[in-house]
């Protein structure tokens, strides 16, 4: 039984690593959050109703047409938030899901996050909030801003239970502002939507001279069987709600994001250790891998 579990874990990580044409270096993949979620994601991919391709036609999700039809209204509320300086980075390192995005200026304002409560969204963006509440398959949504010069490094998102939807609101309408998913590039345009599978390697850059504002949504991945759809829904409700992050005081902060503040401080010490002596850092890393492997073997 022990070897079955080890074998399944290895298979799951290899499945994630070799998925698509573009890959992370294997050493990085081993410690990437997508590897820890790999045993769950392999089932998500196996029972997925949508094809295993980087981009999915938007027409496959007809419920999103109401967002497309109302994009000028959504844009107006988003631009008002920018004027109010409400679209911003996490101020207390309590955004477990997107903390690494803030380094070059990426900003967000949560409109919906699974079962978490964000009263600020309903108060400041009533029309967009109401539209999103009317689409049960949209599990999470935010305004996402990418200023000139900002870049998001190549990464995979950890949970395969959703698809990613971007709706251009106020974009440069310029090919220098783009996202690349598994080597295929897409440039945002005002009023146009795109859906992609965020468990493929993707990255984004705004090399233009203008800001980029989009509506960013996680849409529940359609599954082949009802029981698997129910499992997916339960996983999203339990795991992803725990990663909720607030826009401001009064919004819910999930347990994972609360704990992330501790992890963030530890990460600062880790980076200092690496800067002090890369050889010692790598040796420690290998020792930890061997230690975990030995623990699994003897359990």
Automatic annotation (TrEMBL):
The keyword tRNA processing does not apply. One of its GO terms (molecular function) is dioxygenase activity. Residues 69-222 form the Aspartyl/asparaginy/proline hydroxylase domain. InterPro entries: Asp/Arg/Pro-Hydrxlase (IPR007803), Asp/Asn_beta-hydroxylase (IPR051821), IPNS-like_sf (IPR027443), Lipid_A_LpxO-like (IPR047694). Pfam families: Asp_Arg_Hydrox. Keywords: Dioxygenase, Oxidoreductase. Belongs to the aspartyl/asparaginyl beta-hydroxylase family. This is Lipid A hydroxylase LpxO. The lineage of its organism: Bacteria, Pseudomonadati, Pseudomonadota, Betaproteobacteria, Burkholderiales.
């Amino acid at each position: 039984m022990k070897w079955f579990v080890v074998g399944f874990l290895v298979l799951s990580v290899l499945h994630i690593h070799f998925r698509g044409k573009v890959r992370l270096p294997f050493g990085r993949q081993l410690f990437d959050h997508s590897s820890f979620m790999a045993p769950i994601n392999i089932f998500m991919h196996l029972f997925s109703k949508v094809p295993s391709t980087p981009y999915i036609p938007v027409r496959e999700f007809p419920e999103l047409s109401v967002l497309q039809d109302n994009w000028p209204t959504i844009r107006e509320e988003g631009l008002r938030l920018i004027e109010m300086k409400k679209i911003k980075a996490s101020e207390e390192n309590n955004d477990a899901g997107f903390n690494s995005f803030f380094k070059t200026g990426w900003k967000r304002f949560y409109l919906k996050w699974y079962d978490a409560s964000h009263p600020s969204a309903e108060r400041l963006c009533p029309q967009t909030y109401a539209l999103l509440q009317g689409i049960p398959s949209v599990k999470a949504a935010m305004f996402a801003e990418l200023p000139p010069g900002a870049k998001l490094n190549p990464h995979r998102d950890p949970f395969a239970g959703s698809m990613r939807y971007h709706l251009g609101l106020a974009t440069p309408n310029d090919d220098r502002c783009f996202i690349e998913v598994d080597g295929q590039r897409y440039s945002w345009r005002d009023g146009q939507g795109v859906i992609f599978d965020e468990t493929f390697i993707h990255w984004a850059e705004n090399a233009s001279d203008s800001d980029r504002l989009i509506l960013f949504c996680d849409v529940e991945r359609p599954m082949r069987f009802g029981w698997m759809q129910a499992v997916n829904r339960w996983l999203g409700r339990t795991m992803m709600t725990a990663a909720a992050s607030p826009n401001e005081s009064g919004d819910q902060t999930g347990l994972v994001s609360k704990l992330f503040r501790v992890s963030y401080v530890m990460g600062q010490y880790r980076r200092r250790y690496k800067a002090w002596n890369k050889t010692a850092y790598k040796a420690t890393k290998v020792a930890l891998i061997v230690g975990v492997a030995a623990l699994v073997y003897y359990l």
